Amino acid sequence: MSTWANLGLQDSASPLMEQLIFFHDHALLILVMITVLVGYLMFMLFFNSYINRFLLHGQLIEMIWTILPAIILLFIAFPSLRLLYLLDEINEPSVTLKSIGHQWYWSYEYSDFNDIEFDSYMIPTNELENDGFRLLDVDNRIILPMNSQIRILVTAADVIHSWTVPALGVKVDGTPGRLNQTNFFMNRPGLFYGQCSEICGANHSFMPIVIESVPVNYFIKGISSNMNS
Ligand code: CUA
């Protein structure tokens, strides 16, 4: 959950986001090593005066500094591909949520349960409660069970939107006329915030997403009290 003075993104709440963070750290470490090495070499070149009039070619060093970067890139490419395919894997979801982007709000449908559907608007700053998050809280939250595979279907009604929740490692475009699919698994309860991240018009910044992750029995209770409403 977000707390005050929390400037970065929310902590990870799903195994896929955990893997994404591991991959980020791995790539960053390689990047730092390359930057330090190249920085060191450039620095030393400025402060030496070695000259060799007969140096015209160096086959061996050319071989090394061509092949070595290619091998280093493989160490980024393979884990990246592994994650890419892992993100696309759907493992028998227990709940399906459909989210539809509109200018400028999200609407949701729990198609599994007797057609529960609702709109989710941002709460304007002047109507915010004292404990609310400005530009981030909504009037109707998505309630979903923790420790369950959840499938989301994303689409849009007018222009392209993007359903993005950093804590879950989810970022899917909602495109008119198309239905995109992804899935996630929440490993703890809490409130997970997201925002639209496809420039979709004047109020693009004002269509946030709030997911309330609750234990499964709470979810069933909540869903059954909303039936036939
Ligand atoms: Cu919807 Cu940006």
Automatic annotation (TrEMBL):
Its cofactor is Cu cation. Residues 92-225 form the Cytochrome oxidase subunit II copper A binding domain. Binds a copper A center. Its main location: mitochondrion. It is found in: Mitochondrion inner membrane. GO terms for cellular component: mitochondrial inner membrane. It is a multi-pass membrane protein. Belongs to the cytochrome c oxidase subunit 2 family. This is Cytochrome c oxidase subunit 2. The gene is COII.
